[in-house]
Amino acid sequence: MDQTFRPTPDAPVVRLMVLETDMPHPDTYSERGSFGQIVHRFFSKAGSAHHPPLGVETDQVFVVSERGGRVPTVEEFARFDGLVITGSVYDAHANNQWILDLLELLKTLWIQRPDFHFLGVCFGHQLLARLLGGNVAPAPSQDWELGHSRIDLTPTGQRLFRTRDSHIFLHQMHQDQVTAPPTAASAGPEMLSADTEVACWGRSEHTPVQGLYIPNRLFTSQAHLAFDEDMVKRQIQIRVDGGGIKDLEHADRAAETAHLEHDGVEVAKAILRLFVFDDDDMGYERR
Length: 287
Prior knowledge:
- The protein is of the alpha/beta class and 287 residues long.
- Helix content is 30%, strand content 23%.
- Helix 2 (35-48) packs across helix 9 and helix 7 packs antiparallel against helix 8.
- It holds the Pfam family GATase.
C-alpha cells in the first residue's frame, strides 16, 4: 500500500520501499497496522523535523514467502530512493529460502543501483552486514539485549547524530548480533571499492556493533527506532511465548523500561540526512 506524507506542498520527498520481514503483535497490528505502516509514520515525523521539511513516500512488501509473502523484483524499486529492512523473529544468519532470495535481490540492487540507499533495523542490520561479508551469530554470552539500553557513540555516531553526548538510548530486542563487521575486503570489489570504510557508529557492553554506516549508501541500527511502550512489551511477550527468551526475570525487567524515552527520532533524522542535506543543528547542540 502506497503512502505519502508531505509537510508542505513543495517539500522534497524521500521514497522508501519497506521490506517487512515479520508481523507485529496482533494487538499492535489492529491499532497501528503493519511494520511498514509504523515505519511510514515514524519517518514522516522525522521528516517534519528536517530542515527544510521532507515528505516521505513508502510502499511495503511482506517478504516472508513461507508465511504468504513474496520477495519483490528489482524492477519494483525503480521509483524508490532506498529501502528499509525491518526487524524479525527470524535469524539473519539462517538459510531459509526467502532469506537467500532476499540476499540475492539486495546484491543485485547494490550492484545495479549505485545511487540507492540501504537501511536496516535489527534483523535488517544483521542481514545487510551479512550481504557485505560480515558475520552474524548469537551473542557469545547467549543472552538477550532487551529493553531500554544505552549505546555508546563512536566519533562517527556523534557526527551522524550531531551531538557531543557520549551516548544515546534506544530499545533493544535481540540475541543475535554482528560478531564481525563487514569490510571492503569481506564485501569484495564487486560490492565495495578497496578504499571504502564501513564505519561502526555505536556499541554497548552486550553488542560491539550497534550500527553500520557508509556515506550516501548504508545506515543500519541493531536497536529499534519506532518502538513505543506497548510495542516493546508485546514484542517481548511474543519471544517469551515462542520460547526464544527463556530468562523470564530478564524479560520482566526489560518490560519495566518500556516507558522510558529514547532517541529513535534523532536516529531517523540522521538516516534522512543520507538523502537530503539538513542545515539545522550544525553546532552539535542537540541536548
